[in-house]
Amino acid sequence: MFDRLEIRVLPPGPRWAAEIRIRVNGEDVIDERVGEGGRGPLAAHALPFGRPGSLWATEEAHRVELGEPICTGGCCGFLAVVVERYGETVRWSDWEVPVDGADVPSPPPEFYFDARQYDAEVGRAGAEFGRQTYGGSGGV
Q: Which of 71, 11, 137 is nearest to 21 (CA)?
């Protein structure tokens, strides 16, 4: 059974540009691991207009920063995952979690997505961000 990815584009705020929230199987995988005041990935990086973004899954594994605590990733580290496509499956693995003193959140488990659902969700979110930002049908 595959995991289910949901991406929501949030409008820009006073401190950050537009960012995204990621839910897997209904759970926000960013919030509880970056802490209050932290942020998710910037939408412009994860879902850039007219080209694949960091969430795009390819056969070449790549590290994706999914969250940053309020103190910045340079201080405590980032919430990051390795994204890789294996045929019709996309895998998220090898999690890194930010460290804030003695409070180290547990990393999420490995996730396995149906590549068609994954691609459709990344494409849908990219188009949503494109409409919000450019008034058109942008995205990956």
A: 11
Sheet of 27-28: strand order equals 5-10, 19-24, 27-28
Which tokens in the block code for residue 56?
A: 């795009």
Identify whether the C-beta of residue 44 lies closer than 8 Å to the C-beta of residue 25: no
Answer yes or no: is pLDDT of 102 > 60: no
pTM score, two decimals?
Answer: 0.85
**75-96 pLDDT, tens per residue?**
677 789 999 999 999 999 999 9
Q: In what order do the strands lie in the sheet with 111-114?
A: 62-67, 79-86, 89-96, 111-114
